[in-house]
Write a structure and sequence with these properties.
Elements (H helix, E strand, L loop, with lengths): L1 E5 L13 E4 H4 L4 H12 L7 E6 L5 H14 L4 E9 L2 H10 L4 E5 L11 E7 L8 H13 L2 E5 L10 E5 L2 E6 L3 H10 L2 H9 L4 E4 L5 H12 L7 E2 L20 H8 L6 E5 L6 E5 L2 E3 L1 H11 L12 E5 L5 H9 L2 E5 L7 H5 L5 E4 L3 E4 L7 H15 L3 H12 L1 E12 L1 H14 L7 E2 L2 E8 L2 E2 L6 E2 L4 E5 L4 E6 L7 E11 L9 H16 L1 H5 L6 E2 L1
Parallel strand pairs: 3-4, 3-5, 4-9, 10-11, 10-12, 15-16, 15-17
Antiparallel strand pairs: 1-7, 2-6, 5-6, 8-9, 12-13, 13-14, 17-18, 19-26, 19-27, 20-21, 21-24, 22-23, 24-25, 25-26
Helix pairs in contact: 2-3, 2-5, 7-13, 10-11
The structure holds alpha-D-glucose-1-phosphate-6-vanadate and cobalt (II) ion (CO).
Cobalt (II) ion binds next to loops.
């Protein structure tokens, strides 16, 4: 039976950088999930009888939310849903299913790298038919619908069994429970030289992949230990847990410290990697070297043709604005297009669809290509492995060689988490007020070339996105960027991004902190950071 339930708007269902993200308790309120899913369908047209993909990263409340999404979809006239077994689908795997089976769209439950469990975070995101996150135009309509909602439609049925592969019906809608890994693995086989990778592991190459008790465990085990013959135990923390084992599934140097320490120790294997809650991020650490995500993007782009899927070359490289310009140098050398977009993967969709960019990346450990419309953690790991298998060099040697060729972009991001929201807004406004007076000014040893609040004009659909971060660019190519996070769920998170270009090979061995020390002081002075936030140090440095 299909029921129509009267409801009223929740005040705050506004999607951020990557969908709607809130504390689990917020999502557990009666009607909360129902309202948002109904608002998604209310924002769409022409989906009667169509197919949608539904899955999530396995975190606490995932199964309940998926059962609700199935009931609402059935009641709204959806023809079929494809659901990952156990409710599991990594974000890139969901993107692949949407594209491969040409579905109308997909609903992904995840709060990505945010902590899980009953007191952690939960999230939901709508992806469109190209497999990518809904662009701003679409999320704005969804948000408007959440504000005017008066009723939702829901099938009044029992829970279905999410664990058995096969097909069941819910009020005339077909529910197909599928292996979450199978199609993704086939896609990876089309991009990378699996024979060569098998030979690499057979030759004694060793790696550790930390799945952080999040969604990539089953994918990494099936591909690395299964298809590629890496020894059992290569994948650690490989079982997705609702609370991620009490950890924070964010593959950075704080939360993946154990992996980092191993890779810096005398017992380090050849390669270390980790992924996040929903499998779209990657952390790359070679023996004795952490590769910043910005450098990883540049190195992957520079070497991509070594993998079969990219052998014919790249059309272009896109990076988010705060990501270092290392990738730009590769694009310039290759003579291909380069694009600078606002933060968030949704801004890459049009460039990928139009064939303008092949590889995209963000400084926040996100790299991906035109194979899906999301960033893809395991893809980045496999591309690195493919490059290592062909070059037979260490990660350290490959990066040193890269810096010799292109120069080095020293880079760091400082996060100030859970600061007072008013203080954060005040700090940004204080910076904005200074913008007109900055060009030409000398700050310590650097002269400001230009300063602005980043705005992006999409070259494909001509949409304009404003207020995407304060940039202060110096004459020597150094940069300071400030922006407020759009994924946090408590207070505000201020992100400060610092970059300095160093062409001189003799200086490439410098510690990043030393290379950026002056710029960090300048950033602190200009923003009155300590006084306004009450913090004398960032919560996380990457
Ligand atoms: C952060 C990152 C951004 C990324 C987003 C979603 O956003 O900075 O680069 O696209 O998370 O990543 P923000 O607004 O907090 O800076 V994920 O792995 O949550 O899908
Ligand atoms: Co993620």
């Amino acid at each position: 039976m299909i029921k129509e339930i009267a409801t009223k708007a929740f005040g705050d269902q506004k999607p951020g950088t990557s969908g709607l993200r809130k504390k689990v308790g917020v999502f557990q309120q009666p009607h909360y999930v129902e309202n948002f899913i109904q608002a998604i369908f209310d924002s769409l047209e022409g989906f009667a009888g169509a197919t949608f993909v539904i899955g999530g990263d396995g975190r606490y409340f995932n199964r309940e939310a998926i059962q609700t999404a199935i009931r609402i979809a059935a009641a709204n006239g959806v023809g079929r849903v494809i659901v990952g077994q156990g409710g599991i689908l990594s974000t890139p795997a969901a993107s692949n299913l949407i594209r491969k089976y040409k579905t109308f769209g997909g609903i992904i439950f995840s709060a990505s790298h945010n902590p899980g469990g009953p007191h952690g975070d939960f999230g939901v995101k709508y992806n469109i038919g190209n497999g990518g996150p809904a662009p701003e135009g679409v999320t704005d309509v969804i948000h408007a619908k959440t504000q005017s909602i008066a009723l939702y439609r829901i099938a009044d049925t029992a829970d279905i069994d999410l664990d058995s592969i096969g097909t069941v019906a819910v009020e005339g809608m077909t529910v197909e429970i599928v292996d979450p890994v199978a199609d993704y693995r086939l896609l990876m086989e089309t991009l990378f030289d699996f024979d060569r990778l098998r030979a690499l592991f057979a030759s004694g190459f060793r790696m550790r992949f930390d799945a952080m008790h999040a969604v990539t465990g089953p994918y990494a085990k099936a591909i690395l230990e299964g298809a590629l013959g890496a020894p059992a135990g290569t994948v650690v923390n490989g079982t997705p847990l609702p609370d991620f084992g009490g950890h924070h599934p964010d593959p950075n140097l704080v939360h993946a410290k154990e992996l980092y320490d191993l890779m810096m120790s005398p017992d380090a294997p050849d390669f270390g990697a980790a992924s996040d809650g929903d499998g779209d991020r990657n952390l790359i650490i070679g023996r004795g070297i952490f590769v910043t995500p910005s450098d990883s993007l540049a190195a992957l782009a520079a070497n991509a043709t070594l993998a079969p899927g990219y052998a014919s070359g790249l059309a272009g490289i896109a990076r988010s604005m705060p990501t270092s310009a290392a990738a730009d140098r590769v694009a310039d050398k290759l003579g291909i297009g380069r694009y600078e977009t606002p933060t968030g993967w949704k801004f890459f969709g049009n460039l990928l669809d139009a064939g303008l960019a092949t590889i995209c990346g963000e400084e926040s450990a996100g790299t991906g290509s035109n194979h899906v419309r999301e960033k893809d953690g395991l893809w980045a790991v496999l591309l690195w492995l493919n490059i290592l298998a062909v070059r037979r060099d260490s990660v350290l040697a490959i990066m040193q060689d890269h810096w010799r060729t292109y120069g080095r972009n020293f880079y760091a991001r400082h996060d100030y988490e859970e600061i007072d929201a008013d203080a954060a807004r005040g700090l940004m406004q204080h910076l904005r007020d200074q913008l007109p007076n900055l060009p030409g000014r000398r700050l310590r040893n650097a002269r400001v070339a230009s300063a602005d609040d980043f705005a992006y004009d999409d070259p494909v659909d001509r949409s304009r996105s404003t207020g995407q971060g304060i940039r202060i660019l110096f004459e020597d190519g150094s940069r300071i960027v400030f922006r407020l996070s759009g994924t946090g769920t408590a207070g505000a998170t201020l992100r400060l991004y610092i970059e300095r270009y160093e062409p001189d090979t003799a200086r490439h061995g410098m510690a990043t902190g030393d290379a950026l020390a002056d710029l960090i002081l300048i950033a602190g002075d200009l923003s009155e950071l300590a006084a306004r936030t009450g913090r004398d140090a960032p919560s996380v440095i990457t």
